[in-house]
């Protein structure tokens, strides 16, 4: 059963009321605030909807485990709640998995698709179950630092310690049950058979230095969907949208506004 997720909408004051909608779906351990670097650029051209994944931020925390279909149902429910028949989707990591599933399952609701630093199959499953067990036993703070170390390159962490600390605190603040249950969704996920069914024009963005979802994961996505393109962003790890915001924003806008 879907849950009503917490969301915010941003748009430039002079944007037409019928401007296209883009929904931003975030990473495991993040709230909608992870997209702050994208909003000023995207909101000049699109109505920008950001939301907290179930089990995160201000969204409900139902008992787990969750599935990728549960997360896709929540996203579909958000579109229905907003009265949006068809939207662009941009998803990073877990948000990218959610967007891929919805684009394959409900293609009529998805216009264009951007997936960043994500995968159609991210094993081994036992690693995700182990992380879920750790979080349930010791809290999300137990995994926050190693998780966020994978989000940014070492050079970026050294030059932006305040960004690293804010991200670490954000992950540590997530509800353990929500975080662990999303880990279980990733453990059970295999979207490889879904990819050929995705007809939305798709931009797959990889961080060149991403240790969590290396570029080959995005290469497979771009090569397997019906209309895919790959962009590898230099000097970026898993949270490429933060570390190389200008490059990512430009690529996302070009893709979403192309006709």
From TrEMBL:
The protein's UniProt keywords, in alphabetical order, are: Hydrolase
Instruction: Please name the source species.
Output: Pedococcus cremeus
Q: Which InterPro entries match?
A: AB_hydrolase_1, AB_hydrolase_fold, AB_hydrolase_sf, PcaD/CatD
Please name the NCBIfam families in this protein's record: protocat_pcaD (TIGR02427)
The residues the entry assigns to the signal sequence are none
**Can you say what this protein is called?**
3-oxoadipate enol-lactonase
Q: Which Pfam families match?
A: Abhydrolase_1
TM spans (from-to) = none
Q: Which GO terms describe its cellular component?
A: membrane
